Amino acid sequence: MKTILIVDDEEKIREVVASYLQMEGYPTIQSGTGQQALELVRGGNVDLLILDLMLPDMSGEDVCKAIRQFSPVPVIMLTAKVSEDDRVQGLTLGADDYVVKPFSPRELTARVKAILRRTQDDTLLAEFIAFHNDDLVIRPMQHEVYKMGKLISLTPNEYKLLLILAHHPNRTLTREELVEKVLGFDFEGDNRSIDQHVKNLRQKIEVDPKKPQYIVTVFSVGYRFTGGES
């Protein structure tokens, strides 16, 4: 089941939201600060983030912006700000939805379900996601990938492979999983065929393909996308 991270400095709000989500079967994690939220998302065990914009240590906007530097995890912003400009700004920073306080926990739960349904096919919902200080930028809506500001040409399989890996940052995906997701259930070749696609993709997105920052080999298992963290 998908794990939901609830970030709000008010414990009562966190508990109410958590209780509704747990009734629907979703495991939840709670955080009262932006910094802790970033650490939890970096851990790779968060499938959706409910993010309040008024946090004690940093703004929710800054948290969302920082997350979009290394993870495509869906973000629902919670805020008392009601203007259209505020909503547009939140979506521009990479949020996937925007809920105004006071809100209905049932409606919020419905929005969580809707977003998670849309992510089941390993698509990226964010308008863009940037890694390693904009060294690598993916724009899913345009099907474009940029390396150091330059548009790079990827084959359909390379592009799909990159999206699948980036959709699961810091998680090891086996060769079998990648073959199934990239090449399809009916692919009859060897699982090692995915290695060639990874090799080709590394040639295009890595500064040094022999010392990859993004697509790391997990010996005898598969690959992990690290987001270019040093």
Automatic annotation (TrEMBL):
SMART domains, sorted: REC, Trans_reg_C
Listed name of the protein: Response regulator transcription factor
Keywords: DNA-binding, Phosphoprotein, Transcription, Transcription regulation, Two-component regulatory system
The species this protein was found in: Paenibacillus alba
InterPro entries in the record: CheY-like_superfamily (IPR011006), OmpR/PhoB-type_DNA-bd (IPR001867), Sig_transdc_resp-reg_C-effctor (IPR016032), Sig_transdc_resp-reg_receiver (IPR001789), WalR-like (IPR039420), WH-like_DNA-bd_sf (IPR036388)
UniProt superkingdom: Bacteria
Domain Response regulatory: 3-116
Residues with PTM 4-aspartylphosphate: D52
DNA-binding region: 126-227
Family annotation (PANTHER family): ALKALINE PHOSPHATASE SYNTHESIS TRANSCRIPTIONAL REGULATORY PROTEIN PHOP, REGULATOR OF RPOS
PROSITE patterns per UniProt: OMPR_PHOB, RESPONSE_REGULATORY
Positions of the OmpR/PhoB-type domain: 126-227
